[in-house]
Structures are given as structure tokens and as C-alpha cells.
Amino acid sequence: MAPAPQVIPYMHPDGTEHAHIPDFYISSLNLLVNIKSSENKHYRLRDLDVEKAEDHAIEKTNFNYIKIYDNQFGKFIDGIAKIKEHLDDDDDKRPKIIIEEFTENADNTSELLD
Q1: Where are the domains of the chain?
Q2: Residue pLDDT, tens place only, 39-93
Q3: Which residue from 9, 48, 70, 86 lies 20 to 30 Å from 108 (Cα-Cα)?
Q4: Which among 84, 76, 74, 68 is positioned nearest to 34, based on CA atoms?
């Protein structure tokens, strides 16, 4: 489903509350998907703190989460496979899968794509 029907509140780096709507939701996998490009590095670097805040807010939810950069669909397929491995697990034993999350060291776009 695009865009995702979920609205994820997050704290903007300037201290105000904002809302993020992920790009896609796959209900059968309880999966939120965001698709990003690193082509325009000026805007990418300018908005990096906002993107981190959005990611951290999604990580606090009960949704699985995959972020795809620049058509790296192999990681998307791998993430779906990991989620499917655990579909039959009890809810309390099912791990939450997060692929392509930001790290605290991700301060430039080349590190984000590794």
C-alpha cells in the first residue's frame, strides 16, 4: 500500500513534533518501507538529522522496517526473507527486522550505502 497508512510521530531535531508517513506498507509482513536516493547529496546531507529522527521513531514501533537506497533491491529481498522465516513464530518470540537503519556514525552518504 502506498503511501503507508501509518503516521509515525517523531521529534524533529529543532525540538518540535512532526509526523512521518513511510512510502509503503505490506500488511502481510507488518512491514514499513522507505525508499531513498543519495543522488542529491546537498539535500541528503542537509536532511540527515531529520531522516535519523524518522528512523528512530519507526524503530520504536512494532513494525518491521526496511529502507532501500538507490535501487538496492537485494537488501529488500533479504529483509523479506528474514521476516518470512519468522511469520509462524508466536508474537512474543517473533523478532522485529530492521534493515538499513542509521547508525550514529552515518554522517555522510557514502557510509549510508555500505
Answers
A1: 8-112
A2: 767 777 788 899 889 999 999 998 999 988 877 788 888 889 988 988 888 777 7
A3: 9
A4: 68
